[in-house]
Structure formats: structure tokens, C-alpha cells
Design a protein that fits this description.
- The structure is a single chain.
- By secondary structure, the chain is an alpha/beta fold.
- Helices cover 32% and strands 17% of the residues.
- It has seven helices and eight strands.
- The protein is globular, with a radius of gyration of 17 Å.
Length: 196
């Protein structure tokens, strides 16, 4: 509740819609990886990309600085990544990157959370990797690129740094409760999900 709303409204009532699992979340498998510390997230991402069976993946971060940093780290480690999609690109530039990703020019799409909200549906099951844990209400957008009513199962993996910031465990629970989903720890070994 904001302070401004409390000052302006008398006898206000906070109303929240009942929790319902939206279709795009119902068809997703939800996992998290505890990287322990922010500084280990890029290394964890690189390890994950080596072990996942995927043709392409979407990597989402909360800031354009983070997107640029991830993009640079991916290229240094010989992972073909798109230019970072952020608010500095106009719509035509974003559409070009989306088209190149869809056509297979890039295996990895690096995008900010804000720009992901406006992304078109991609015609495959690319896993979505939340490099930064999204807010409960923003989480639904991590499933949207695969199609709002897609019956095809896709994968959403959220990174945490719980040892460095223990509140992230609580935030993960808030994402689960708000979206009426369960987010399990990603299995360490095994072909748990083929994203091709």
C-alpha cells in the first residue's frame, strides 16, 4: 500500500484477484537454481547452457546493464547471443533481433524484463532463463513468448542468490503463491527436459 493512496483515500479496501493459474503458466515447467551469490550467476548460466538439451534459449535480466554484461560474457565463452534487447532499441530494431532469433541466426536471445513484455510469440520451446528473479506479477511474462494459450510445455528457470540475499527465498515463494504454481529446484543431473 502506498503512502499517497493512504493519504488520499478514506476507508480504502485493498482488492486482489483470486489466485488462478493462467494458461501460459499451466503449460510451463518451473524450476529454480540457487547460485548462492550474484557473482556466480554467469558461470552457472554457462554450465546450464552446456548441460541443457536446447536449440535456443531466452535469457531475461532486470536491467540493460545486466543484459549487456550477460551478452559480453556469452560471447567471450563462444555462445552465439543476440545483441541485448533493451529500451534503447526502437521497435524496428527489436523486431529484427526477434526475427533473427526465430530464424535461428542466434541461439540465445538476451532481453530485459521490460522488453520481454512486448515480445511476440516465438514458434518453438526455447527455455526462458530468469537471470534475475522477477516480481510475482511480472513472472507471467516469462511464459508469454511461447504463446499465451500454447498447450506445448516449455521451461522457465529462475536464478537465485539465496546465500547472499536470503530474502530471495521469500520472494520465490511470493512468485509461487501469486501465480498458483510450484517452482522446484532444478535437478542437477539427467535429461529432465528436452528443449529441442
Amino acid at each position: 500500500d502506498s503512502k499517497l493512496a493512504k493519504r488520499l483515500l478514506c476507508d480504502s479496501v485493498h482488492v486482489r484477484e483470486p489466485t488462478v493459474t493462467l494458461p501460459q503458466l499451466r503449460y510451463a515447467k518451473h524450476f529454480y537454481v540457487d547460485c548462492q551469490d550474484e557473482k556466480w550467476k554467469l558461470e552457472t548460466l554457462l554450465d546450464l547452457l552446456e548441460s541443457l538439451q536446447y536449440n535456443q534459449a531466452i535469457i531475461v535480466t532486470s536491467s540493460k546493464r545486466g543484459a549487456a554484461w550477460i551478452h559480453e560474457g556469452l560471447l567471450k565463452n563462444e555462445h552465439p547471443a543476440s545483441p541485448p534487447v533493451n529500451g534503447d532499441l526502437n521497435q524496428a530494431q527489436r523486431n529484427k533481433v526477434f526475427s533473427d532469433f526465430t530464424n535461428g541466426t542466434y541461439r540465445l536471445l538476451v532481453i530485459t524484463e521490460i522488453c520481454l513484455r512486448g515480445a511476440d510469440c516465438f514458434p518453438h520451446r526455447a527455455p526462458v532463463i530468469a537471470f534475475d528473479l522477477p516480481s510475482p506479477s511480472a513472472y507471467v511474462h516469462f511464459a508469454a513468448p511461447m504463446g499465451r494459450l500454447s498447450p506445448r510445455t516449455h521451461l522457465i528457470i529462475s536464478f537465485l542468490a539465496a546465500s547472499q540475499d536470503p530474502s530471495q527465498v521469500r520472494k520465490l515463494k511470493e512468485v509461487e503463491d501469486f501465480n498458483n504454481i510450484t517452482i522446484e529446484e532444478l535437478p542437477v543431473e539427467g535429461s529432465f527436459f528436452d528443449c529441442r
